[in-house]
Amino acid sequence: MNNRTKSLIYAAVIGLIIVTIFLGFLSSITNPVSWILIVVLLLISTLYKKAASNKEMLWKEEYSVGVDVLDNDHKKLISLLNQFTTAYDYAMSEEYEREALNDLVNYTKHHFQREEELMANAQYPDLENHKKQHVVMIEQVGKFVELYNEQGHDSMNEISTFLTNWLINHIQGTDQEYTEHLNSKGIK
Length: 188
Known about the structure:
By secondary structure, this protein is an all-alpha fold.
């Protein structure tokens, strides 16, 4: 069952509960069924929000690379990734999905450029290898954009999973390697 179907079923169940509550109150304000359904409605809503929030990626201090501007970029990338994932999870319109993907891709390119400029200015010795990783990532993202253009919404879970894993692995891996060098050059 895809997310659009789940969202539709969720909305239908909520609507049915609300109508039943309303009809129960028409018979009597003290109707216990209506009051029980209100509690059920609140529980469903609370559980749904909790399940959705567990999927959200949160910034952790262990992701910090010790350079404020790059940490802020990484926080923004996480936020954009969450926005993209939300577009998938809640089966948003194609326009919203495409905008979320484009925002993520464009900001990723912007971040890579900023990161490479900082490393070049600091004469980071492993800059070329880091740039190569960025090029590979941009090529992969281009393939995912093509996949989205071909398959639409159905491709978003694969894209989201890949981007989440790549971003965290990159931040905690190769991005951590330049921290000491950049900090020694006064870049914090």
